[in-house]
Amino acid sequence: MRLQLELLKPEMALAEQRVRSTIVVFGGTRIVERPEAEALVRAAEAAAAAEPDNPVLARKLQRAERVLAKTHYYDEAREFARIVSSTCQVNGQCDYVVVTGGGPGIMEAGNRGATDVGAKSIGLNITLPHEQIPNPYITPELCFQFHYFALRKMHFLLRAKALVVFPGGFGTLDELFDALTLRQTRRMQEIPILVYGRAYWDRVINFRTLADEGVIADSDLELIRYVETPAEAWDAILSFHAEPRPAAENAASPPAKSQ
Fold it and tell me: What is the pLDDT of residues 169-211, one digit of tens each?
């Protein structure tokens, strides 16, 4: 019964809200907005200064500084969602609705960008040992709590027109490789898989090595496209689906300021 509920409840709610297609935004929970990251660095600096010979505290400071260096991805995920949501939700129709995992970090940024322009967005949250609370920017009628990863992943991709993968950890990698495997084996619709921020991803995964070692085809590398800006990501999606840039779009406007 739980499996049936997790299959049907989102389907019914999305149909009721007239959601016809989505864009999936993945990324790390720990890549937060700059003020929060700065506060974490200050706390780590104070702790390390109090115990300068403590390697654990030194490592904690190093990690906090690396998170701070990636806060621009939060802003860019928010801006990407703003561009898409301001363009595609018109006249009561809901195309290319942003869907995230519903948690903090990059997921929060995606839902927040849609909220910035008064648009709907979806959050597919999941029950975890360390509770993941849905972020406050998800459209309430489109906030779902899952128990099973498999059904959650299915709902991510059922209506997807694109996948945009911002820097993240194990969960982001899991979702990226799930989609790549389905595309490689032609078990899902053709969509662009956009990997955002090549400098980060080149350090994390060497896709070329997989091809060089003969464990994937050279053509499988074409399943991935690297992008560096919100506008470039949106243009890549429009180009993939051979859609003109909507006249109502205002992609050149400045990013929404943090509130």
Answer: 999 999 999 999 999 999 999 999 999 999 999 999 999 999 9
Instruction: With respect to residue 138, please indicate whether it lies within any of the assigned structural domains.
Output: yes
Residues 119 and 156 in one domain: yes
Task: Give residues with Cβ within 8 angstroms of 184, minimum separation 6.
Answer: 216, 220, 223
φ/ψ (deg, to 5) at 18: 60, 35
Q: What's the predicted TM-score (pTM) here? A: 0.90
Bin 118: left if φ > 0, else alpha if -120 < ψ < 50, else beta: left
Q: Rg (Cα) of the chain, in Å, rounded?
A: 19
Whether residue 195 is contained in a domain is answered as yes
For the segment 29-57, what is each residue's pLDDT rounded down to a tens digit?
Answer: 999 999 999 999 999 999 999 999 999 99
Give the residue from 84, 99, 108, 120 showing the smallest Cα distance to 33. Answer: 108
Same domain, 177 and 55: no
Structural domain count of the chain: 2
**CATH number of 119's domain:** 3.40.50.450
